[in-house]
Structure formats: structure tokens, C-alpha cells
Backbone:
């Protein structure tokens, strides 16, 4: 069908059941891999033409890795797959009555639908925070953050206003989960080993990195031991950790808290939680807090031919009454499960219930510093945990090329104490926000000096 954009989805009509998959993240790509040669036509939609390895986004944001080392083109991942079609489109709606998904290039019917659209940052309805803070959920987000970090340093060197410079050199990370902890540690190491050489005129004692968490510990999804160790290691690196601290608002210049004094800052990184990526057309009884309720077969409760997996799904079991954790392993295992079991469903064979195998959790704090919670109640931190973290992340990267690029960058960073990606390729600007150093503070003399 031709659309108003003049484009057409151009999916051939075959005598095979069609599986439409929304999202080429961890869940989606594992579904496709496991559907191969099982007699289906597979159509994968994603709004990006690449898969993103989200656990390493913070390294792109903090100049440790290039963006393309943690992304893999979806067409390349599935090259040579028969009856596989990738379409670079955002799904704008789902019509479960007519078995149709909608895109800007028209509608497409499905026999089976797998929703693997992941999650998006949760700003808890606070529009100001959404407007002014920086999330870290995608590669464009990571590039925005990297540019912002580098831009504020450039600006700090060019201002003689002490208050404005302090705000430029203050970074507040909200959310003490793995993203906040990883990013805080990486920034602290940049500050310690690299930035003083790049900006010799700046006094890096003025640079403050805050990590703010609403509950009483870091890494709330991991053991208390891991949270305590992460806090201790971050504080040793100079990060200021505030626990039990609720953020009230941020206006682009000052961040306000419930029980703490406000802080003037140009940079607030928001990683305080996620909510699911909603799709218009899904019945309200299928949703709980935005996530899609699924049964033990990953099938949307109340639907016959719609499955949901990964971050967007909510499967309540005796072991996980509030659903599974929002981690890559859940999405990977659900993706594999659905891929394998759709063939059984097609042949009217019974499906076994999905069982999540928890392989444990890891978080890194910095060079030689990480925490690990492994199955069997094995909990430890330090250099061994860091090596395990390195190995696991390399292992799960999408292609050999990605593994090689990341490995080479890490070796380089390790031996040189350098991070070669401190580039402002695409300047970041919040058009509607006044700069922290307003015009009243700068004077002609300063401008002349800069020139
Ligand atoms: C910064 C960060 C750090 C993380 N660190 C870890 C970690 O250390 N360990 C860990 O296990 N987990 C980590 N996670 C969580 C992990 O990445 C997620 O649990 C996992 O990616 C979920 O997989 P998914 O397939 O459900 O969704 P995703 O991987 O998010 O994939 C969803 C895909 O759907 C696409 N999409 C969304 N909406 C549409 C639409 N309307 N139309 C078309 N396509 C669409 C998106 O472009 C995306 O490609 C981290 C997440 C982030 C953001």
C-alpha cells in the first residue's frame, strides 16, 4: 500500500505465516535469530537501523568508546537470512482487532506480533526535568552528553565569573543504579587522569561530580554489599554521593532537592528510572503502569497472537511477583524463548513456561573497580569483579568487529590513561535554555582576552 510519504513497505506476500517484530534491541534480535529457517516470513521494524548495546552507552558519553563500537547495523546482523525483511520505521500504532501495525509508510498485517520496544526514561511527569536534564538511553543521547561534558569544560576555561564557572564544572547525576554509578566513576577518572592535561588553566578542585539517589543505598537492584562498596569506591574517586535525596525540579540552571540545598549546575544527567515505550492501540486491560502484561509463555494476556518481551513486558510469577528486572538477560532469554516457541505454536504443540535463569549482576565503578553479585550468593568487588565485567561485556557485544573495537579501545585507555574520543562532533544545545553564565556576568575585557 502507498502511503502519504510516497514510500511503501514493499513486503512480499508469501504462503508463510508472517511474524512482525517491533524493536531490534536485545529481545528483538534474539527472536529473529531463533525464528530462522522455521517456515516464517520475518519483518523487523526499528526506528534506528542499528542495535544498541545499552550497557556501554555511558562509555560513549564519557569519551571512552566511539559510538559505532557499541552499535551493529541490523541489516548486517541478519544478512543472508531467508524471508527476513528489515524496515527502518517507527511503529505508530497497533490494531489487534485487524492484526495490523501502522507506520508512516502504511500498514502491515501480521500473523504473529512480537513487541520488543524496550523502555524510555521516566521523568515521573516532571516536565521541567524532562526539558532540561539529559537522559542516557540511546546513542544520540550519549553523543549529546559527551558534547555537553566537553562544551561546559570549554566554556569554563573561557569565563572569569567564578559562580558561572562553578556551575559549568558541576555535574549532577540523578539515579544511583548501574548507569549513574558507571557514569560517575568514568567522569571521576576523566577528571583525575585526563582533563587537567587538556585544560591546564582550570582548577579541577572546582569540578564537582554529584551522584544523587532517592533511596538509602546505591545499586538498589544488587546486594547491600555491592551498593556499599560502590559508594565507598566512588567517594574515594572524589564523587559526592547523596542518598535518600529526592530531586524536586531543575530549571536548566539550578537543581532543587527535598532535603538538601539547591545546586547550581549546567548539567543534570537523568537516569532515575525507566517506563515502557507505549504503543497506541493496545487495550488498556493489557497494560499495567505502561508495561504489557504477559503470561508464562510471553503472550499478551487476553491476546492470541501477540507476544511482548524484555523491558516493555510484565510477567508476574511466584518468584518475580512484580515482574522480572529490566536487564538485558531477561530480554535475551525471552527473545530466544519466543523465537523457539512460535514454531511450536504454529504446529499446535504445547509450549513450556518461560523460566528466567538469573546469571547475576555486575556494575563497574572505574579502573580495576567493580562489584559482582553472582548466583549462589557469591558477592565480591574489586579487580576480579572488574575483569569479569570486562569479559562479560566484550562477550555480549553484537559482532566480532564491535568486540575488537571495544577491546582495542580498552587496551589503549588502560595503558595510556587516555580516552581518545573527547570530541564535540555534533554540538549539543538546549535552544530554549539561557546559558548559565548570563550576559550580565561577562564583560568586554574578558571577551577581548579570549579572542
Ligand atoms: C544506560 C543503560 C545501561 C544499562 N546497563 C545494563 C547493564 O549493565 N546490564 C544489563 O543487563 N542491562 C543494562 N541495561 C538495561 C538493558 O539495556 C535493557 O534491559 C535491554 O536493552 C532491554 O532489551 P529490550 O529488547 O527489551 O529493549 P531495547 O534493547 O531497549 O530495544 C528496544 C528497541 O525497540 C526500538 N523501538 C522502540 N520503540 C519503537 C517503535 N515505536 N518503532 C520501532 N522501533 C522501536 C528501539 O529503537 C530499540 O532498538 C542498561 C540500560 C541502559 C539504558
Residues:
Amino acid at each position: 500500500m502507498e502511503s502519504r510519504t510516497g514510500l511503501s513497505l514493499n513486503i512480499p506476500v508469501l504462503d508463510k505465516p508472517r511474524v512482525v517484530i517491533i524493536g531490534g534491541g536485545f529481545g528483538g534480535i534474539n527472536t529473529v535469530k531463533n525464528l530462522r529457517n522455521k517456515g516464517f516470513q520475518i519483518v523487523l521494524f526499528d526506528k534506528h537501523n542499528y542495535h544498541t548495546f545499552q550497557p556501554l552507552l555511558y562509555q560513549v558519553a564519557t569519551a571512552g568508546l566511539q559510538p559505532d563500537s557499541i552499535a551493529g547495523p541490523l541489516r548486517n546482523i541478519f544478512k543472508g537470512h531467508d524471508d527476513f525483511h528489515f524496515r527502518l520505521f517507527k511503529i505508530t500504532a497497533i490494531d489487534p482487532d485487524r492484526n495490523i501495525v501502522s507506520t508512516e509508510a502504511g500498514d502491515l498485517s501480521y500473523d504473529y506480533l512480537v513487541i520488543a520496544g524496550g523502555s524510555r526514561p521516566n521523568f515521573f511527569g516532571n516536565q521541567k526535568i524532562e526539558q532540561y536534564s539529559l537522559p542516557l538511553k540511546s546513542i544520540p543521547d550519549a553523543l549529546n552528553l559527551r558534547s555537553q561534558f566537553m562544551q561546559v569544560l570549554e566554556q569554563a576555561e573561557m569565563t572569569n565569573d567564578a559562580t558561572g564557572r562553578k556551575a559549568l564544572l558541576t555535574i549532577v547525576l540523578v539515579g544511583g543504579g548501574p548507569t549513574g554509578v558507571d557514569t560517575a566513576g568514568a567522569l571521576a577518572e576523566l577528571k583525575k587522569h585526563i582533563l587537567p592535561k587538556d585544560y591546564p588553566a582550570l582548577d579541577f578542585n572546582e569540578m564537582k561530580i554529584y551522584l544523587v539517589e532517592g533511596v538509602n543505598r546505591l545499586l538498589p537492584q544488587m546486594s547491600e554489599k555491592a551498593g556499599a562498596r560502590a559508594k565507598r569506591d566512588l567517594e574515594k574517586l572524589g564523587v559526592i554521593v547523596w542518598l535518600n535525596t529526592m530531586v524536586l525540579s531543575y530549571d536548566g540552571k539550578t537543581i532543587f532537592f527535598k532535603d538538601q540545598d539547591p545546586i547550581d549546575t549546567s548539567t543534570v544527567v537523568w537516569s532515575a528510572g525507566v517506563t515502557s515505550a507505549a504503543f497506541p492501540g493496545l487495550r488498556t486491560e493489557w497494560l499495567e503502569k505502561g508495561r504489557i502484561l504477559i503470561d508464562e509463555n510471553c503472550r499478551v494476556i487476553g491476546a492470541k497472537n501477540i507476544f511482548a518481551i524484555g523491558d516493555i513486558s510484565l510477567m508476574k510469577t511466584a518468584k518475580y511477583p512484580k515482574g522480572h528486572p529490566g536487564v538485558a538477560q531477561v530480554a535475551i532469554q525471552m527473545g530466544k524463548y519466543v523465537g523457539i516457541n512460535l514454531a511450536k505454536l504454529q504446529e499446535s504443540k504445547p509450549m513450556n513456561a518461560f523460566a528466567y535463569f538469573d546469571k547475576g549482576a555486575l556494575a563497574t565503578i572505574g579502573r580495576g573497580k567493580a562489584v559482582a553479585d553472582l548466583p549462589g550468593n557469591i558477592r565480591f568487588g574489586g579487580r576480579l569483579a572488574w575483569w569479569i565485567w570486562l569479559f562479560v561485556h566484550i562477550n555480549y557485544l553484537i559482532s566480532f568487529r564491535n568486540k575488537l573495537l571495544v577491546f582495542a579501545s580498552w587496551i589503549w585507555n588502560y595503558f595510556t590513561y587516555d580516552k581518545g574520543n573527547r570530541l564535540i562532533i555534533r554540538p549539543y544545545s538546549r535552544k530554549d535554555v539561557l546559558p548559565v553564565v548570563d550576559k550580565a556576568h561577562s564583560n568586554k575585557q574578558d571577551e577581548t582576552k579570549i579572542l
Remarks:
- The chain is about 30% helix and 20% strand.
- The chain has a mean pLDDT of 92.
- The two ends are 58 Å apart (CA to CA).
